[in-house]
Amino acid sequence: MKNINSYRKNIRVSGQADGGYVLYWMQINRRLHYNFALEYAVAYANRIGRPLVILEGLASDYPWATARTSTFILEGMAEHAGQLRNSETVTYIPYPEQQGGSYGKLVRDLCSRAAILISDEYPVFIMRERNEKLENELSIPFHTIDSNGIIPMALSGKAPYSAFIFRQLMQKVFRECWEHPPLEYPLKGLQDHGRPDLPEAIMEKQETGLKRLESATSIADFVGGLSSLNKSIGPVDIKGTREAALERLDAFAGGDLLSYDEDRNDPDKERTSRLSPWLHIGKISAFEIVREAFAMQPGGWDIDDARPVGGKRNGFFGGHPSIESFLDEIITWRETGFHFAWHTPEYDQFDSLPSWARETLSDHSGDHREHMYTYEELAASRTHDPVWNAAQTQLREEGRIHNYLRMLWGKKVLEWTADPQAALEYLIDLNNYYAIDGRDPNSYSGIFWIFGRFDRAWGPERQIFGKIRYMSSESARKKVKLNNYLKRYSGL
Questions:
Q1: Helices (H), 193-317
Q2: DSSP-derived secondary structure letter, 183
Q3: Angle at Cα 162 formed by Cα 158 and Cα 167, nearest 5°?
Q4: Which of 301, 334, 331, 333 minimizes the C-alpha distance to 318?
Q5: Local structure of residue 121 (DSSP, 8 states)
Q6: What confidence tier does 191 reach under pLDDT thresholds 50, 70, 90?
Q7: 471: closest CA among 492, 451, 491?
């Protein structure tokens, strides 16, 4: 096998870099640490002896744009601005877009003067579309780098149709991937190649961006002035910074990790990691989280402790069962979604479901539905079901749903809408508008699991669901404790 990290590089436009500067466009993995794409950009700048420019922006009119997600992303950009404003080796250009279309123009203006464009490889949302569009427009070399997880997406030959299939691959290649980690702080190795020759108009955009990020008040004022955002979905209590992500990781690893296997499905105890918002925008890497989990193994952990077990869920990593369970979530389940979307351009379409799921849903699409709700009623938590209402209220107010109840939340929408296609549309919109971790391969995995992706046919057949796995609020209340959860989110 060739060097494992070579699978992380996708050369979209080839050719020799000549003149100008190295431009790293930070689209989704928005971090300065443990970032393969930034590491590659630094190495390239050093190799050709050119300055490094980092562009990090936020479009004003992206799909499902809200004050919630925009504020969260801008808080992370402000953190970078404070760290890089006075850098002697890198030019950082933050660009919170105020007018639609100007962000794309800035990208092209910077590319017109660059030697090479390096950016993030990402299999969903607008990043995939942007990269594919630029691939057909640029004449300079354009390389995208996969910094999303432990196992490079290009390493899987086809879409994994179950976690078991991906787990088999993961267990075969994990050791080599783990032994080729990202550098802790790539910018530490950046040599001084002088300053890039940038026109005054671009430098003015840089200064304007820095001013818009200089305080929480200025960020709030900027977001409030964007007419293209849904401002009714406002910011949440957590901050979109790397500092906040590391604090959450420390709290989880030092507190709830060793109870994860037993308590993760208990909404009253709330012992999930709650790291997905920062994972989604790349403020923290999967590598760091996995390493921290290994560090918490009683008695320590070594790579030699990892032994392939044929794709079985337990036994590969060894050690504490809660750590094993958490690693299966953060590696297997999370990255199954990334690899599936990488190989499946129609990842967000009903037709991407397995044939058995499409067939059974079609067979039962005309079944009688006792309850039917509009999108507006669902968004406002106005149903007959207090458990569902509580889950939707948590999503609306906090930008997340407890992991166990998220599955039930989706199943009920399938049951309460006119047909499966309408249910899918509702769920994607509810998730991508309200959830901080929406618009992510992992969130699409969760939504499509409701309809049979990564699952199997179940019997006996039921009304509406057919052979799709069924869940009910009544069974949930028997399986997990919900008293405190219901008091908090529905007043019951």
A1: 200-212, 216-224, 242-251, 260-263, 276-280, 286-295
A2: P
A3: 85
A4: 301
A5: -
A6: very high
A7: 451
3-state secondary structure of 110: helix
What's the average model confidence in pLDDT over 60-80?
97
210 & 313 share domain: no
Q: Is 164 inside a domain boundary?
A: no
pLDDT at 492 over 70: no
Question: Do 324 and 357 fall into the same domain?
Answer: no
Looking at the structure, tell me whether residues 335 and 400 fall in a common domain: no
Strand pairing of 142-145 and 9-13?
Answer: antiparallel
Number of domains in the chain: 3
**Rama region for 31: left / alpha / beta (φ>0; ψ in -120 to 50; rest):** beta
User: What residues does 117 pair with on adjacent strands?
Assistant: 23, 142
Collect all residues with Cβ–Cβ distance below 8 Å to 376 and sequence separation of at least 6.
Answer: none
pTM of the model: 0.96
**What is the SS3 assignment for 58?**
strand
**What is the C-alpha to C-alpha distance for residues 62 and 482, in angstroms, rounded to an integer?**
36
188 part of a folded domain: no
Q: Which domain holds residue 299?
A: 242-280+285-343
Residue with tokens 């993961």: 170
